[in-house]
Amino acid sequence: MFLKRHLVRQDGKAHVYYSLCESVRVSSNRVIQRRVLNLGELNTTQLERWQRSIEVIQHEGERRQYRLFTDREGAAPPDAPDVCEVVLSSLTVRHPRQFGACWLGSRLWQELGLDTFFADALHDRRGPVEWSKVIELLAVNRLCDPQSELGVHQRWFGTTAMGTILGTDDAVAAKDRLYRALDKALEHKEALEAHLARRWRDLFGAKCDLLLYDLTSTYFEGQAGEIPKAAFGYSRDHRPDCRQLVLALVVTAEGFPLSYEVFEGNRADVTTLEEILDSVERKHGSLGRVWVFDRGIVSEENLELLRQRGAFYLVATPKRKLAAFEQELLNEDWSAISGRPDIEVKLVERDGEVYVLSRSQQRAERERSIRLRALHGLRKDLTQLSKAVRTGRLRQRDGILLRLGRLKERWPNAWPYLKKVELTDAELIWRWDRKKLLECLAATGCLPVANQPLPGESRHPLAPVLAADRSRKRVPYAQKRVKPAPHLAPDSVSRRSPPSGCFSRLLPLDLPEAKTQGRGWQPDPGAGGPRTQADPVGRSLV
What is the value of pTM for the model shown? Predict the structure, then answer.
């Protein structure tokens, strides 16, 4: 609350009025001044009395700040205790430093209890600066402006107020000390993961009964001769010429990191699951959890391992298994998802598991467009090659076969639909596999999942998987298999759990509002399905 001065000129005279105002924030970037009371014209004594009244109301007699503006006569009272004179020409900005973001990062560090954790864990480590403050400096840098240890030492630390916030000098950002800090923290890796898991539960109510597991890789530009685990392997960064490390990360359904491991660069994804299971169970107990991972980690051995340990899974499996559900795909007993009329699901029980089939009209149109573009491209190139053979411009058999190999490499998605490619003395003849094309059309836009329904009450509903995977941008072209908790009742499985859990990465919808209703589906005859026509030389084309 403050006094606002209003100057009104009327009939050549200037009148000064005052009003009592307060600042009100109406949005994140807008503040308005609301007029509380009109005071009219005030003399100097009345003005000072109102000023003292505002200070008493706001701060119980304590003054809020120095006056920044003079009174209505244009001169400040000489005897006022809260008045200071400033020569504007003498003001300069020296050594500006970033404070707000650094302070917030340090405050978050304290909220997680990491200051006390590292202070207790590294209290016996000697040095001019506490190791806990060096690690806090690195963590705040990763939050505000991620840089290397050398970048923190040379550039970032000098532009921030981290020295003041940490209560230390420039020694906290010494180059060698920064390089050694993470080695000190690594010694307490398991204790740190257990500590963070407790803080996630206390602060955010995070649960560890549903875990998402995935792997990535990071590569080295140099030889990496002193890194034993650096090796050549499958590169997700498309750098097979560089040695790399494989990083495995386990997060909760809310996205909080729970554990991580570093594997050799040539380690296959499918071989990492058992070690991750041992690590998580050793740190957080062996209670039955729902594991979510992609098809790169899926194998029958891994799924059997999860069953033996009483764990449950939601996994992606190859789309080629759709061939086993040909009859189910043709039936019309599909159920639509409310709010997403373009997506339909169906439950199929086989071998003690419930497969959840899903199809999407938008996905079908996209896949059909991609496939037809490849088919038409292959047909065009084959026609040109056939014309070159027929007119005699290309005669050598080896050259023709080489051209066919190039076409196979150029159109890998369309080549499997060729039933026969025959090279005669006069021409090149090919035929399409109509049966395979029709089967592909029937499966376009469809995905299946497996679940294992057992009687009882659900302790581990798969609904949170949907929200947990919503942040994942890519949609895998795969089916999904699920082994739910053994307490899922058959009714609940058939109505809600499998459709949501099985397609958490496919259907970005909110499960609590997701309901199904019986609805049939008829394919659009004009949507670009396969058709047969004859070209001038009698070949069967699509």
Answer: 0.61
